């Protein structure tokens, strides 16, 4: 496994490197001290996961996140001393897979890394899946392809998993915690921001009017439902 740490604090980078050495002795830890060197390393070094600090000397971590997302869907975990809710929401909206506030322990970090890697590497089953259609939305479960009015829609792995759960249970209300457990894992129970943000992203890609959705509906205080 190859892990890219983007952080200008040598103490933090060293602590993360030591933590990985204990949890994953076979891991290769790469370190970028600034945003300018980090983005090319994503292309040249092919990391399996990225840990990205929000505060970098030459760029805002959110800007670096946007640049990486433009070229790769690899798992990205943002780390920050700023635990404010708007920062967390912004990171998730821009495509981060997780957001961890400093200080954090080695066990918590390793659990989060395992979770984002598990989500990235697993896709819903395809056996006996077939196809699904609802208005202009078409899903080929066997190929994991989604199209809107005949044009393929690019979804991230998490977006696809969320859509899969909703459409395979079309007409049924799926509870918040059930969706969080199935898609993110039991470590994320109660993390409703993750669910809200990804539902909004799906609506923006699939609904004619995301503000007044026709298909991906909210059951306030309970969960979400896909209506054909």
Explain what you see:
With 228 residues, this protein is an alpha/beta fold. The protein has 8 helices and 12 strands. A 5-stranded parallel beta sheet has the order 2-1-3-4-5, sandwiched between helices. A 4-stranded antiparallel beta sheet has the order 6-7-8-9, covered by helices on one side. A 3-stranded antiparallel beta sheet has the order 10-12-11. Helix 6 (157-168) packs across helix 8. The chain is elongated.
Straight-line distance between termini? 42 Å
Average pLDDT rating: 90
Give the H and E element order.
EHEHEHEHEHEEEEHEHHEE
What structural category do the secondary elements indicate? alpha/beta
The number of distinct helices, counting runs of at least 4 residues, comes to 8
In helices, the fraction of residues equals 40-55%
Overall spatial form: elongated
Report the radius of gyration as a whole number of Å.
18 Å
Strand adjacency order, main sheet:
2-1-3-4-5
SS strand fraction:
15-25%
Biggest sheet overview = 5 strands, parallel
Query: How many β strands by DSSP?
Result: 12
Low-confidence stretches: none
SSE blueprint and pairings:
Layout: E1 2-6, H1 10-23, E2 28-32, H2 35-45, E3 49-53, H3 61-71, E4 76-80, H4 85-93, E5 98-101, H5 106-121, E6 131-134, E7 137-140, E8 145-148, E9 151-153, H6 157-168, E10 174-175, H7 176-183, H8 192-206, E11 216-219, E12 223-226
Parallel strand pairs: 1-2, 1-3, 3-4, 4-5
Antiparallel strand pairs: 6-7, 7-8, 8-9, 10-12, 11-12
Helix pairs in contact: 2-3, 6-8
